[in-house]
User: Fold these one by one.
Assistant:
Number 1:
Amino acid sequence: MHKLFRLAWRNVWRNKRRSLITIAAIAFAVLIVTVTRSLQYGTYDTMESMAVRLYNGEIQVHRTGFQEEQTLTYSMNQDEQAWQEIIDKYREFTGVSRRVTGFGLISSDSASAGALIVGIEPEQEGTNTQFTHMVRKGEKLQTGDDHKVLVGQTLAQNLQVGIGDTIVVLTQGFQNQMGADTYIIKGLLSAGNSDVDRGIMVMPLHNSQDLFSLYDGVTQVIYATNDFRQAEQRARRLATEFNNDRLEILTWEEMMPELRQIIVMDNVSGAIYLVFLLIVVGFEIFNTTMMSVIERTREFGLLESMGMKPGQITSLVLLESTMKILSAIVAGLVISAIAIAYFIYNPIALSQTLQDAYASYGFTFDSLVFAARAQVFIEPLLSITIISFIALLFPIYKTRKLSPIEALRKA
Amino acid sequence: MLATLRLMTTALLVLTTANSSQAQENAMKIIQKSDELMRGKTLAGKYTMTIIRPDWQRSMAFQFWSEGTEKSFIQMLAPARDKNVTFLKIKREMWNYIPKINRVIKIPPSMMLQSWMGSDFTNDDLVKESSIIEDYDHKLLRKEQYEGAATYVVELKPKPDAAVVWDKVVEWIRVTDYIPLKAEYYNERGERIRTMVFSDITTFGKRVIPARFEMLEDKKPGRKTVMLLEDAVFDAPIKKSVFTKQNLRKSR
Amino acid sequence: MKITTKIAWRNIWRNPRRTWVLVTSIAIGILGFLGTSAFSRGFLEQMVESTINLSGGHVTINARGYQDNPQVRFRITLPEQVEAVLQKAGGVTFAPLISLQGMINSSETAAGVQINGIDPDKERQITVIAKSIVAGTYLSSGNGAHEIVIGNALAQKLNVSLGEKIVLMISDLNNELNSSAFRVIGVYQTASSDFEKRFVYIDKHAAQTLAGYADELSSISIRLHEGLLLEETVENLQQALADKNLEILSWKERNPLLLLSLEMYDASVVIVAIIMFIAIAFTIANSFIMVIYERIQEFGIMIANGVLPKRIRRMLYAEALFITAIGALLGFATTGLLVGYYSRNGLDLSNFAQGLAKFGLSAVVYPEIWAFDVMVGLVGIVLVVFLSVLYPAIKASRFEVVDAIHFV
């Protein structure tokens, strides 16, 4: 066995050109698949995290029943849980913000319309979600603002009001108590979605608590984490931490099942590209190994006529190929890592129009994103290894069928 | 109060249909008489309303004026934070005045199915027009003893085109004086959704009517709204200026 | 030249194994490139379709102001004039729509909804609601005065089943409350429970009665037939209907965020296509280079026998041309068969991932082969072949005879 190993090693180096072509082909396949996957995952991650952070945030904590009923009956007391402690205790939770969400009738002197009223903590909300940044006219809310509100752009237009105008809000708050107050418009929101633009109003948290007779209660607590894909596991941590069955803890996947499906769809389409790519690179590998084995038919005939058993020849070829495949994959992975690192540190810029379009919705998205997580490397590693060995089986099978004389006569 | 009255009249009032049978005619007469008893030409009265929920309850008081089914006016008396909040209803439109913000707001359709002042009644219950009454067919089911009195049990079935969510309404009306005692509202699966119970039969001037109305949501146990008519004057003329938008701001 | 061609043709069949390696590398290249581009064309199309199939079609026409403020008063007052223009323009299918913001009321609870009054038969050609019925039936023309189709999620929220009654309430043209009872005859399901909770469907005439319209409409939804350009059509319609105070909007203008993510997807598809092409080029170049190196001995002998290097180069190009032609034919044939099959029957993505089953119709992708992609693929591959033959051919023809013969 040791002898065979040495022979294989020598053979690999004896014909450098042939070996290098094979190794390069496989390494290149690894590189290409890895970079493609990295780009796919990077793009999906970016788009999905944007969707997650647009409004709902990654994890929401409510009084059990709020998600279903969306009424103020399901509100939580301020001191019920130490919301902030989680942030101090666990590094993976990066932000917490509290909200009050309810419905109300918004009126100007000339018209009125129903709208979703969201009470927020401007600073905290701004780091957890995106929608309060989407101010088209006027200014964003700031900590300390009082009786100032952001109104959907179309809603303002329908009410025929603008920045600095006063609007009246009428609601039914906690325990159905009537709430009414007047506010000054500080900014106009536009999320690029007509439903949002004509149906939302944002105000400071304490104003919304007064309006809805909630005292210091809130309806939602939103957590941001350092990886939105880990939301489920983080949510379980919160559940253990709070240990309160009157709270429901929902991840973005539970709040937005449609988004979840779009992600799956993206992954499936990514996988279909991968299949095509693997067909091409798999064929490439097959071709190269096949040719290098067949090129050597005469050599095998010689070995056999010198007394080597067919089984030994197969083992020899298998060993040689394994050496080549392994070194190719290692080389491929190293080059891929360098390439991906390069793209991460030297991003490929998006076209200016696309950048501007994203910027107008408050998103900073200016270059193609490459992901560097384990999946990116593991998938090509496995698929290419499997394909390489499959590509080997056929030529090996062929060499076994040749008789030495035939082999000698051939080529 | 508006809501109760409207619900009651919805349930009680049924106008004639062309080819009604003998039984239907009897049922119609019962309903008509009961309605005549409960509904004056005008009403001015004071109500207290208690909203009961599994974990809290709240009471309020208001003054109420109505003329026929088309016009009514409400002025809140208590609690203090809602004092002098007023409502005006003319036909199917409704306005609301809130002193705190000094505005008159017209209640839009999207708010119509919201609860009125936190009760089990919706704004729509207050403004429903009598046209809905024409939409019922009625039938005398049986006579039976109820709460120690002989009662007619009348079934009201909405006509096919009627904009009514119920499959049927069943009423218990006292044989001797046509006082309504109970109304049950059913959905199309035969499940009872709402129950109204009338009690505390009291004399107001010349009229003897129930002063206490309870409304229960059968699928939401522990919830009910209780209305108490504390004093009432029937058929006295009410100034036209009461049912005006100007009055929303003025009345205090 | 003729002789060179003949020799080349004979050469490629002298060693069929070698030829098939090259032919298949080209065929696989074509399949890979066209397969991915056809899939991504189809996928993008599907993303657009799944949005416009739910509401509105490619283009909608409505009264100016309606998009921002969908109130009863914004209406198309003379729909027959608009329809006449559409009829004349041709190449489009259209359906009337009355959409009213209102409330739906069951015996247990109420909810805000958008009431869509439709012409059942025409709507069928615009949106997928008719195909999304999971219980009961779709509306049928002529007898729908009190029939309603609602979403599954809404049915659960209101706690109503098939055959049961609900009441719709809106503020009509005269600003008066108007309500009417309907029976649930059908329940539909889409990928989105928000959509299901929001849209209910009744007959056009019932909606017009509710709203207090005569034959006015809220909007007209238009689906463009194959080959009609979106922007151009919108522009033409805007010109034709310029004096009617109407808004004519494409799906792009109605869904700016969708458009944005499509553009993003498009950008990443271009990158993936480039990567794919690099992989193909590498495969082809590798195969050609290896095959030519295998034959260096042969070239040496030819040169030794006095064949001009120019002839060898020409022979190699001719061989490459034949091989490319055969490979391309084979590649187009397999791509045609494979992609053709799926573009007719659809590639159901929910077969690959369980989570997609609920997407129903919208998880099916119909790959599309674009002439542009075929051209790009073909030109690219011919170029790659030429370049990969160029270097070894030059080298082969310049070998020292002795070197070449000894080369193993």
Note: Residues 57-255 of chain A form one domain.
Number 2:
Amino acid sequence: MSPRRTAKGGLIDRARTIRFTFDGENYVGHAGDSLASALLANGVSLMGRSFKYHRPRGVFSAGVEEPNALVTILREGVREPNIPATQIELHDGLRVESQNRFPSLAWDLGALNQLGGRLIGAGFYYKTFMGPVMGPLKGTRFWMMCERAIRRAAGLGRADYEPDPSRYERMNAFCDVLVVGGGIAGLMAAEAAANTGKQVVLAEQEPYTGGFARWSGEIIGGEPADTWAAAMTARLAKLDNVRLLTRTAVWGYYDSNTLAALERVNDHLARTPKGHARQRHWTIRADQVVLATGALERPIVFCGNDRPGIMLAGAVRRYVAEFGVLPGSKTVIFTNNDSAYETAAVIRRAGGHVAAIVDVRPQIGDEAAARATEAGVVALTGHAIVGTRGGKALSGAVVQAFDAATGSLSGEARPIDCDSIAVSGGWQPLIHLASQAGAKPVWRAEKQAFLPPEPTQRWVGAGAFLGTFGTRQALSSGRDAGLKSVGKRSSRAKLPETPATELDLTPAPVLEIRGKGKAFVDLQHDVTADDVRLAHREGFVSVEHLKRYTTLGMATDQGKTSNVPGLAIMADARGIAIPEAGTTRFRPPFSPVAIGALAAERYGELKPERFTPMHDWHSERGAEMTPAGLWHRPLAYANAGETVDQAYIRETAAVRRSVGIVDVSTLGKIAVKGPDAAGLLDRVYTNTFSTLKVGKARYGLMLREDGLAFDDGTTWRLGETDFLMTTTTANAGPVMQHLEYCLDVLWPDLRVHLTSVTDQWAGAAIAGPKARAVLERCVSGTGVDNGTLPFMGIVHGEIDGAPVMICRLSFSGELAYEVYCGAGHGLHVWEALIEAGEPFAMTPYGMEALGALRIEKGHVTGAEIDGRTTARDLYLDWMLSKKKPFIGSGLMDRPALIDKNRARLVGVVSLDGQRLGGGAHLVERGNRDEPGESIGHVTAYCYSPALEKYIGLALVKGGKTRHGTRAFQSDPLRKRFGQVEIVSHHFFDPNGERMHG
Amino acid sequence: MVERASPLGNDFRPGSYGDFANGADVAISEVPKAAIVEARAWPGKENALAGLVSSTCKLKLSALPNSGAANREGVCAFNIGPGRFLVSGAREALAGDIAQAVDEETGTVTDLSHGRTVLAIEGAKVEWVLAKLFALDFSNNAFPIHAGRATAHHDVFVQIQRRGEKRFELYVFRSFARAFAKSLRRAAQDVGYTIK
Amino acid sequence: MLIDCPHCGARDLSEFSYQGDATRTRPDPASTDTKAWIDYVYNRPNPAGKHREYWQHAGGCRAHLVIERDTLNHEIRSVALARRDYNGGDAA
């Protein structure tokens, strides 16, 4: 029998025993337990060590607000740190470790930090380490030295270095009404909305709906409240138009009534079923939202308020009533309102012992007094707890007479033996989501709480969220909210009957008892009341500054139990009222969300892969693939024992010697059609296309509006009003978008249609002196001779039964053709071409060889059209038409863009046999260590088999004027420095005889 | 005639996958469409174009945004943008027929028969699976039969037509088809799926 | 955040690309007034409050939209197709 388990009661399944381990020790609990309730039932009150001082801590709450009992779950080979023990459903095989302790939870060396507690108050790290260097033990360098040790000593759980094998997924949902919170108000709202036939989603962060009804012990509609809630839930579950999401925390409220929620789908099972997600991220777009999020209890801050055994009064009640666990054998109640009196009565009913009720108020009402009597004590009104005793566990409280009006203590402090303190500082509505939605909370002095303001988005509040507490209010406001969310007026129909309570939940305005010793405001971040006052003395009076300086409310619990007490202390220090001190705006997430859940299926490369029709052929041939945007392209087809460098040099040489073939399916292709197609091209290209004859192609250059070069490619005139534009692989999307903008916004009068046909066509370029011979062997239906297919000509024919379109154009400087066919025929045509090339030992080549061929030829690509170069920089002035305006013509002649000293395109040759480096700077001074000012940089390089040298293209100040001069490449990253010669970028066959031949 | 290769690769094989112990709740298949074209109207000619496509393909296509139509021969068409329709069918000559029918004063026709791959997904949990990939409301009210949507899954453009109570056809760029099929299959694992 | 595309209906922000200020006018294409071009290309008012912008429904129908948006709170006051000449498929 567990030492703290009650004999009966609670919603746990006592017939089902569950085994779990905590720090390697075996324990048992029951189905329906949380880890926290099971540990408490086993008499374990020490659950963690605090963030900064390593003080022993126990569980403080029973829900999502838990600041102390954070643990690490070991599951499916992964450590998941910082999970509140209150949020973990017990399941067989659960393995959990405590955190932030060394060597063990009970004997923690870090607890020595407590001795220096005065020294490491608010701002300690900044003051100690971030100041100016004043001797050896100060300043940023010193910080960097100490950081490792400090980071290990201070903190929470340790994350894993292993990849997370868990599966997460995203889900989109649309509904008329999203009800957030499945308590009494939420259930009523969901039912009311669902009865009108609307689509309703009800999200509840706990494993079960019912909320307060599960542990209130009240009667609703003649039955126990938990039975009522279960029946209500079962009714809703049967409705087709209701989706019930339990274990689902709505954590973000964004624009356009879009909400984010996290469903812990399988965390309560020992193992996630294969193919299923562990957690599911929901994006819910709701026409209306009902916020029925309830309220959280907050503590009163007093000295020594963090010992294991001290917890919120409502949590104690919940442990007794929901889980059948008495957190202590002798409990002292400490409160500023009536709600904790019910806790006292509940403890007594369950067979526990209440040692005292300490109430800061001078007097209490009859209802509270009756509860005290039931609990077997007389309330000590006008008293406060001023200190606690104990070590790893609580052993007593110290109480003293207290004047709530002045905050002063008097009389003798006297001890009361206890091992549990249940504290209540009143209730704060959970208004996080309303705040995220854009509204500023409103302080209500009479309720001593921040209440939700008028909605700024389409939401309706219900239940304790509104600051109206009690079951009767939850039933009626819940139904009203449900009706209002679907545009209906309140109903007069009878509500389920429930006895009224006369308990007064309005707290006395006392949230701190000042005394000597550490009184914690933020338990998770170890921020004390004195830290808040220190911050005030040092001038951090704005609540935003206070928060950042002390880190109050910035831990994983986001200050759910500490925000209001912290504000109260700051307001008191400044001598102003709480609303004047202000409150910070709540930001998502309401409760922690695993990064994995946000990434969901976007893992690994984070992007889809794009394959050409010949992809599998390349792979089977052992090509090393390289990403080009989303595309995967062959880098080189290395033979056995060959490096990529050796392979591309061989491939490049083969093209120059005989013939090669390369997959160019990735080039962007846009169908440009319509009576004004040629007109559009004249406006977007720097050169003229309206003069292009049908059946011919032309190389074109586009500028941006600012006059800089944008993209280049050939455009083919297939018919009078039918063009096929090609773009660089990388710019296919941006060019399309640019053209669409032109048509939609700039020139809506042009009748032109654009369609992306990149994927419609597979393309293969055949290049080399034997290229024509290859085509002659396989093309039917058309000639490919110089007369029929001249340079930049286009013909239509067939290859092995598949229709093809062939354009004679060259990127390599060789006699070359681009063969296009339907993508579904791509592999078929490719293989036919390969076969036709056999007599000439036609060599497939990849990106590296493609690059080497174009560098030898001095053709520019994205490395040179880098968004900073002009057409003139690239010696493409000849393409700038003087007869017509075009995009970019307005600004391309700005003085700075035609400056003589601009970096312009040149070739460079390595003089010392060293390879060049893309991005290497060129300098004039031959001093490796002091290279001086850069005159430009290398944009691309290769080994040129034709020249038998490392060559490159570069952008160099003055460009052509430097031809024949020498410079040095300075590439400290690759540890290279060496002499180069600056030459013309037309390294190979400058007159184009091969290509036209 | 040369047969067209599927872009989906060897992994896309018939069988049952995922958690199908209690039955596969969706089926995924590649739909052979010999003809896919985009027909596009000049502004103001939307109804005329819808009419020409309708008469050529024996459909009742309107020019309303997001609308669509299909006939018994499996020819289907849906709206994917202002004045834009995606029309497809099993008969290869369809592409030429539509191109013939649409005169230059009405609009243009662009052949995409090779450029788009069509995946069908159908079954009891089809809306659940698709909701993982797209921020669209797949409920029957919001997305009726024959209606179309142009949307995107991450970087992949997808055009979707509802072809039945529990059947959708997804048009993706051919080069993305393999990666997209992977995403779709992954999304269907928890409900169990078959490839037909 | 959702944008109500006049063609497709309300869609997630992620389907749209921002395409710039919709209040500027492009100079005459043949204009050599550099200042006018510089105003067009570079100078933006950056108002706090109501703003007219071009957005493209890039992950949808591809149409460019003119959106009136409040830069202070992201409220979208109106959305229209940049091209007004589509008749939007009025029932035939």
Note: The CA atoms of residues 2 and 13 of chain C lie 5 Å apart.
Number 3:
Amino acid sequence: MSTSPTDIKNPEYFHKVVDCQYACPAHTPVPEYIRLISRQQYTEAYVINWESNVFPGVLGRTCDRPCEPACRRGRVDEEPVAICRLKRVAADNKGDISAWLPKIPDQKNGKKLALIGAGPASLTVARDLLPLGYSIDLYDENAKGGGFMRSQIPSFRLPVEVLDEEVNRVLDMGVSTLFSERVDSLASLLAKDYDAIFIGTGAPRGKDLNLPGRKEADANVHIGIEWLQSVAFEHSDKIGKKVIVLGGGNTAMDCSRTARRLGGEQVTLTVRSTFDAMKASPWEKEDAQREGIPFLTDHTPLSFVCENGRLVGMTFDKVKSVYENGKRQLVSTGEEPVYIEADDVLVAVGQELSFPWIEKTTGIEFNEWGEPIVDKVTFQSTQPNVFFGGDAAFGPENIITAVAHGHQVAVSIDLFLKGKDMSLDRPAPGHRQFSTKMGIHEWSYDSSVSNDDRFAVPHLVNEVALVDRRAEVELGFDLQVAFDEAQRCLNCDVQTVFEEAKCIECDSCVDICPTSCITFTRNEAEPALRAKLTVPAEQLDQDLYISQNLPTGRAMVKDENICLHCGLCAERCPTAAWDMQQFNYSVSKACHIPSPLNGSAA
Amino acid sequence: MSYLKPNFRHPQLPKNGLDLTRSSYEGLISTLCAGCGHDSISAAVIQACWELDLEPHRIAKVSGIGCSSKSPTYFLNKSHGFNSVHGRMPSVATGANVANHELTYIGVSGDGDSASIGMGQFAHVVRRNLNMLYLVENNGCYGLTKGQDSATADEGSKSRTGNENPFENIDLVGVALEIGATFVARSFSGDKEQLVPLMKAAISHRGFALIDVISPCVTFNNHHGSTKSYDYTREHVQTGSIIDFVPPREEITAQYDAGESMQLDLHDGSSLSLQKAQPNHDPTSRRSATEALLDSRENNQILTGLIYIDAQEPDFHEVMQLNDAPLNSLQQDQLCPGNEKLRSINNVFR
């Protein structure tokens, strides 16, 4: 039995080889914009991002970076490419992008939409549909747009100006904003003349902890995301000297770091899990620790302790994480409860969906966990003209996921209102592929592989950072470091393309490959094939590139896993059976957004 | 054009008995033409030395002049190396071997370097049974000077300009058999499955081991009409005996039919498990080997594999009763007998 040869004509094959782009929910073409940064074309790098993720400046500071753990560099080097921070370089150094912005038609198409919640999902829907002539009403209970990017991400991580620029760019495309206007009834909105309604209200309810003393301590116990929002909108500007933050996620990090800036001198973060199992991103944990915030891990809160009707501290039970069948159990160590003094407690133990304003009569159905029933592809709810996206659809995720949802919702709404099938008529992803060959051994990309370690982003010193909650802590790469970091990218979108008919089986590619990816061997069933490669291909989620059988009866089998995309196989190939071909993949949007990648010039 | 290999290697590269990966046996990036057979031979040397657990600093590479003789730069860059004069690699190898016979000697030569300018040196190093692996990277042409026919080009083989070679060729395998080589093999750069075990056996063999490796010159001798092209070689290969190299301390597990297989013990404790692919070819008989070679030539075939082996013949070091300790380890008092001794010798001639 043998394994079928790889069909490289199917764009999904090479798409998967570009691990960063594949891992990104919005499939932003990462290697392409990193190359543009190397060439100091920051504006073009920014536009490629903007086309794909709408908020490059915001994401370049706050993205959860699913791309970085996926980065191929991380498999051969200590650390992946600093993709997220390079995105910020593009945003910070771009020039005028107005020439790239899509034109908004004066003549509208007569369709009217209501978007509820002005977060990243709604703004993406608006960005994608306004160029098609839709009229859009955007509702939000806050006075400014941005959703949780504004209310929950502290400005020392995301300066207000950066957020304003990218939110306003969408609003300026002709959104009719109904801000400071809370939607209390979906039924009343449905009664208006909207052709479709999009719900992008996020996961707005922070979870509380009902422990003994909670009621009595209420004046000094705050729900994390609500407190961050009140700080962002300047309703709160101070906190007690001793603060306990409960929780181990990114919100807990933001709460503790904000507390440090608003008067918290002893801010202690407590979490039930071990340090490694904490949900926060590793870099956010590092940043919090750098600001002198101790993490009290393996501590489960027991009670709020009050004296004279006022919170004075909390007690905790020391626990151990015990894993059984992959499930964690927290087992008490049986030691005396730990008491920690506190003037204020911030509860950041998770957030959930909340739709008290959606009436049963609207036809929108919910599952047993209170989540709306939403189609995973079309994002349509059980009420045909109502769509969900962002955290509101499937629970808390992150900005880039909300953007990815927004693009798909825009496609759905457009198809829906044109009377087309939202599943069958969805546009296929765009892709193009071309040789990078410039000469016998010359490529149009920097094929040489940098040996540099990942560069660290410089930080503001604590003495300055901790006295101003608006002072951005990360200072960003300077242009030289940005270039050096960009050179660490392996250009995984430049594909090794093999043409059987030209191969003379001289083994040159096998001999030169620095990472021993290529083997010429008899084709067999995949497990056997994986086992007998020069280095066995044990990473099963990484594909094998298998050629048709060659004249000697063997096939070329390449393990995509560790390929450096250095082009040496193609340089050492005497017959150009190997070629290095750039492969661009783009998620189709509802409308055409000009970008250096889709052939349209500014 | 890339001048440097990236530093990164596969993180799961297997390690040998010395806890080294293949990367410890690599050299610089090749500057030979893309697709040159020599690069595959370099890769086979790397593989063989790695599999044999040889310490790179206990290996010496010696070569002459030519494309072939450039190639030691592309493997074992932690080993000793001497790129000598055209055709004179055997002299340098002999000298080095006399000075320190404890190193592993790998000589790399080509058809020009061995069969033309170095023919005399080649003949003598063969008959002296110097303990070394002598690789001939044989492409049948002078690749470095634009592909003129070399002495190993077959009669009738066409050059790239279309001219047939009018002269009889020199078959180094035949020459070596005739003048007393103790390990004679032929292989093909495009067949590492055969080449690597042959190299391991040749390195483990005590004495002179020739491997004539057909190594197509992609630039000047890989066209239709050439008898040293990838295609021609693949079509005309006739495998002689197939060997499995069995390192010391490892049990032989391969099973062959009686009469078809044999086991040969080498001096270093390793052994060869030999499987005959041609019924009348006994690789331990010089006569049988010579006949097999002549037969294959008559049938327009290229006989590859281990063609002849004599594991018992004493090597140059033994014949010459040379000092066991390397010269560089000898102290002043051992090298210079002293005044007393000199006087006693002189007294003999009074």
Note: Chain B touches chain A through 35 residues (CB under 8 Å).
